Amino acid sequence: MSECIFCKICSGEIPVNVVYENDEVMAFEDANPQAPVHVLVIPKKHFDSIADNVDDETLLALHKGVKEVVKRKQLQDEGFRLVTNAGERAGQTVRHLHIHVLSGQRLSDNMA
Ligand code: 5GP
Ligand code: ZN
Description:
alpha+beta; HIT family, subunit A; 5 strands; binds guanosine-5'-monophosphate
């Protein structure tokens, strides 16, 4: 049994509010939202981060997941920001690749 919390989310052990799901990815509401819209898109297959030799199929699936979130949350006109933290010094707290989709307010100009 995996100790990774996002693997537990994929297996249904930890409940989340699902925005979109298919065989390869899950998109769900962040438990501690930093913006009015804060969704995490993750592959069901475990990778530590985007720097972890992610295969093309998974990258494509993540892209599809992001597009579905944009569609379902109607962010086309609002605009949105994608963030993925790789490594502790970049602010990564969960060691399972995830893309933050942030929107619903004017986002800060600060990237760091
Ligand atoms: P990181 O800091 O690693 O880039 O982002 C991890 C994100 O996962 C944080 O925004 C945090 O709020 C979110 N998170 C951590 N644990 C859980 C959980 O159990 N459920 C949900 N929905 N989000 C979580
Ligand atoms: Zn995992």
